[in-house]
Amino acid sequence: MAVTLLAHSHAFAQGSAGDATTATNANHVVKTADVNNASSATRFTRANGESSSAGEATAIHAAAQTQQACTSLADNPVVSQISPSLPVRPKRIVVLEFMFAEDLAALGITPVGMADPEYYPMWIGYDDARLVSVPDIGTRQEPSLEAIAAAKPDLILGVGLRHAPIFAALERIAPTVLFKYGPNFTEDGARVTQLDWSRKILRTIGCLTDREEAARAVEAKVDAGFARDAQRLAQAGRRGEQIAWLQELGLPDRYWSFTGNSTAAGVAHALGLELWPAEPTREGTSYVTSEDLLKKPNLTVLFVSATEPGVPLATKLDSPIWRFVPARSAGRVGLVERNIWGFGGPMSALRMADTMTEALLSLPAPSTSK
What are 146-152's contacts with CB under 8 Å, separation 24+? Predict the structure, then answer.
């Protein structure tokens, strides 16, 4: 069961389409091209070619101050492919990945079609009530072009690493944007995590849907949650603690350990924790076994289940080696029930932060320094 679910789970691992007003060039889906010059400008180019007044410049300046201004999609690092013409305010959006369904829900938008809707509650679960009746357009790996066309979208959101081969077919149905799922390990010399990337994707979707203010509100909520959790951990003397965020795979003594460029790493950093292993990997995960944990005396392990709720931790840690793992013998292995998705958007990251904090505070602290 768990193997099947993980195979489906990996992130790599109302009007008609004709009603939408389109921009003539996807490179100009901008409110301002340069946030540093936003305060001095008095007129700005809209996506539909109209000009905004000097009064509207004040609102744009406010957006610039939060570093949330929309920029050219052609220069956007999270975008891999774009149609030459995009709707200014799309009303009917099809999403081919869980993260985009989550982001639209966070922005108050209900998609008209989504991939793998039956698995969304299992792995994300954010705002299920909004998404429960959204039509199924196939799997994330193999979406149905017929089902997508039947949804009459005016915008399709997909992932480059999966959907690049069908990009031409998708944009024959509706304007399409494909996102790069994960970042390079560094951007401008700074370490970048999948959390940073997912926040950029949320902002971009906010711009595409004319919901920039809603996107800013989501990020503010996430940041407030991170700060709250970090304060709780600091007050408990747990700041700087080394943790592993392991995902059960349904394989004998073999797990994903989320690495230094994963969303889990971004969350851990925001909470003042240290994620092990710190090295970045292409997908933000690496395979580990219980043997890899033997020489980590101060590590606390948070173990994310992939099975139905109620299966005890002891049943999961059935390898003979686990009894010798310092974290287990010290009672510092915590079970995290599934539905904490490591490849989601900012709202999934907030849920991960809350869960990480609760789980860590329920376990004893290491008795020795690192």
Answer: 147/113, 148/94, 148/113, 148/173, 148/174, 149/173, 151/92, 151/94, 151/112, 151/113, 152/16, 152/17, 152/92, 152/112
| Alpha carbon distance 205, 215 (integer Å) | 8
Q: What is the C-alpha separation between 292 and 324, in angstroms, rounded? A: 11
Look at the block and give the residue holding tokens 């991939």: 115
DSSP assignment, residue 20?
Answer: S
The residue among 203, 188, 189 whose CA lies nearest residue 70 is: 203
Structure tokens at 234: 């600091």
Cα dihedral sign for 262, 264, 267, 273?
Answer: negative
Grouping H, G, I as helix, E, B as strand and the rest as coil, residue 166 is helix
Q: Which residue pairs, CB below 8 angstroms and at least 24 apart, start in 159-167?
A: 159/11, 159/96, 159/97, 160/80, 160/81, 161/12, 162/12, 162/96, 162/97, 163/96, 164/80, 164/81, 167/81
Report residue 186: phi and psi, to 5°. Answer: -135, 150
Task: Answer positive or negative: Cα dihedral of 361, 227, 345, 347.
Answer: positive
Residue with tokens 């990945």: 97
Which residue has tokens 């992932």?
Answer: 159
Sign of the CA dihedral 150, 156, 162, 166?
positive
Per-residue pLDDT in tens (0 to 9) along the chain, 370 residues: 444 444 444 443 423 333 333 343 444 343 333 333 332 222 222 333 333 333 333 333 333 333 345 777 888 989 999 999 999 899 999 999 999 999 999 999 999 999 999 999 988 999 999 999 999 999 999 999 999 999 999 999 999 999 999 999 999 999 999 999 777 665 655 678 999 999 999 999 999 999 999 999 999 999 999 999 999 999 999 999 999 999 999 899 999 999 999 999 999 999 999 999 999 888 899 999 999 999 999 999 999 998 888 889 999 998 899 999 999 999 999 999 877 888 999 999 999 999 999 999 999 999 864 4
Give one DSSP letter per residue of 27-51, joined into a string: GG--S-S-GGGTTT-S--B-TTS-B
